[in-house]
Amino acid sequence: MKKALILLIGMLMGFGCTKPLIDYRSKYVGAYNVVSYNSSWVMGQVQQNDTSTFTIKVKRSQERYYVDFISPNGSTSYLLETNGTLHYESNDWHYQVNGGFIDKDHFKLSGGYHGLGGGNSFDATGTKQ
Question: Residue 104 contacts by C-beta under 8 Å, 6 or more apart in sequence?
Answer without folding.
Answer: 27, 28, 128
